[in-house]
Structures are given as structure tokens and as C-alpha cells.
Amino acid sequence: MIMVYTYAAYLVISLGLAIYVAHTLHKNGRIFLVDAFGGNEKLADSVNHLLVVGFYLINIGYISLVLKYGDPARTLQEAIEYLSWKVGFVAVVLGAVHFLNVLVFSKMRSRATENIGRRHRWDEIAEVLPASEGRRR
């Protein structure tokens, strides 16, 4: 019977943690995404929503898959250790997914700002020769 309570506690804590992280990323990531997409708020909001859906799918799937993983606890101490290990591993996975998202969008943002900077540097555009001169061989 102790495993039923341990499973219930694991699900409540892990799902609560996933929901909290998803909400925080959705709320605070919007500004970053708007900047990464050059001020296009509709695109940023759409991508932000898709990221949250993907985040939930990956993490709820992971939480569900590892529910039964591990030896069953027979004592209260083993149940606490079991729960601690599982919730800790879920937290590490949530953190890894978060940093992967940040890395991808940081690269997107740096490319976008690099391209915007290039569009406005008229002095760096190569001089174009008239068509009549052609190439010399």
C-alpha cells in the first residue's frame, strides 16, 4: 500500500512541477520570443503556445513512463528515497529541456539580429560593376 501513496505523491509533485515550469516559461519567454522574431508578436505568441504544448507532451510522457521504474519501496524510508530520486530526476529533465529551448532560441535570435544588422550596413555592400564591363579573363 505504501507504493500507491508514493506513486500518488510522485504524480502530484512531478505534474505540479511541470505545470509550474511550463507556466513560467510561457509567461516570461514571450518577451524573449518577440525579440527573437524581430517584434512579430503574433508569430512569437504562436510559437510560445506550441512550445508549451510540446513541453507538456514531452514531460508528461516522461513522468508517466518512469512511474513504475525502480524497485518498490517496502518501508517509509525507502518510499521517501524512491520519491526523492524520481522527483529529482524529473527536475533534471525539466531543466535540460528548458536549457535546450533557450539554446535554440538564443541561436535563432543571434541569427535574426545578425541579419538585421547586415541589412542596414550600406557601407559594407560590395561595389557592383556595370554590366557592360563584364568579367576579364
Description:
The protein has helices at residues 2-36, 41-65, 76-119. The protein is mainly α and 137 residues long. Helix 2 runs antiparallel to helix 3. It is elongated. The model has no long low-confidence stretch (mean pLDDT 81).
Structural class: mainly alpha
**Poorly predicted runs of 5 or more residues:** none
What is the total domain count?
1
Cα distance, first to last residue? 87 Å
Largest sheet report: none
Radius of gyration: 25 Å
Fraction in helix: over 70%
Given the C-alpha coordinates, what overall shape results?
elongated
Keywords summarizing the entry:
137 residues, 76% helix, 3 helices
How would the blueprint of this fold be written?
Blueprint: H1 2-36, H2 41-65, H3 76-119
Entry summary:
The protein has one domain.
